[in-house]
Every structure is written in structure tokens, then in C-alpha cells.
Amino acid sequence: MAKIEYVFWKDKIGGETERQVTEAFSYGFTVGPHGEWEMVIAKEDKEVRKDELVNIKINEIEVPPKSIILPCPILRHALGIVASLAAVGKPTAVEERRVFDEVIFHPLSDGKVNKGELLCVMNIFYATIERRLVRGAAEKWLRERYRY
Q1: What are phi and psi of 93, to 5 degrees?
Q2: pLDDT tens digits for range 105-133
Q3: DSSP helix/strand/coil, 10
Q4: How distant, in Å, are the alpha carbons of 26, 65, 95, 108, 148 from that of 138?
Q5: Which residues, 6+ apart, have CB-to-CB distance to 36 below 8 Å?
Q6: What are phi and psi of 11, to 5 degrees?
Q7: 87 to 26, 53, 117, 118, 122: CA distances (angstroms)
Q8: pLDDT digits (tens, 9 = 90+) for 39-94
Q9: Biggest CA pair distance of the chain
Q10: What is the pTM of this model?
Q11: Do 34 and 57 form a contact (C-beta atoms < 8 A)?
């Protein structure tokens, strides 16, 4: 178990940041045979310049509980790549439903991204948390309750 400080955007991407100190466990996961593809579509027009990261509003993408997301590397916008889906507010656990409405876009050339254009496709994979997490959580619970 490690004590970490998580820094996140409080109000908007690139806006005010907030910090949350918590304890985290290193754990593994198993990805199941079932997954989904989700299209990431621009919800606004945005001028982009080569190598200047920019946030772009997208149609909402819902990520189901107990799933991980990875961009599909072979299907992307001609002007650049989606570096990350983004959200503001306190971090949400993988075990919970998450909703994203913005991306961090890395332009590879100058141009304009238009509303309705496909930015990339996200792979959504359902995952099962491995037992190491449960063991770590149980150890923490025991330590907290049996302090002398």
C-alpha cells in the first residue's frame, strides 16, 4: 500500500486544480474476452496547431463499471491522436460508472477539427480485479481495527 497525492482539475480542463491524498494498492486485473468499441466524436469545431495539445468537447462516452479503456491505434483523425479521455472532478474508481465529455488531443499537423468528425475509437474492455487488491484491503482493515 502506498500513500499517494492525486492532482485533478476541479472546475475545467486546464483550470483550477485540487489535490486528494489517499492510500492506494497495487493490483492486477484480468481482461475478459468481451469488449466494445466506442466512437469518439467531436462536439465542437476547434482550430489545432501541430504539437500544441488542446482539449476538445466530445459526445458523452459512458464507461461501464469494472472496465478499462484504451484508444484503438489504427483508427484516428488525420490531424492527430487522442492522448486521453478527460473529465473534471474527483477521481472515480474503476468499479464505478464513468462519463467522459472531453478529450486531450495531440495534433500532428495544423488544421481544423469540425463538429461531428470521428477523433478515434476507444476499446472498452471488461476487467476483473485480481485477489491481491482484496488481500491488501483486508490487511489495511485489520491494521486499523487492531491497533494497540
Answers
A1: -70, 155
A2: 999 999 999 999 999 999 999 988 775 55
A3: coil
A4: 14, 22, 17, 47, 18
A5: 123, 124
A6: -115, -40
A7: 23, 16, 20, 19, 15
A8: 999 999 999 999 999 999 999 999 999 999 988 888 889 999 999 998 888 888 88
A9: 64
A10: 0.78
A11: no
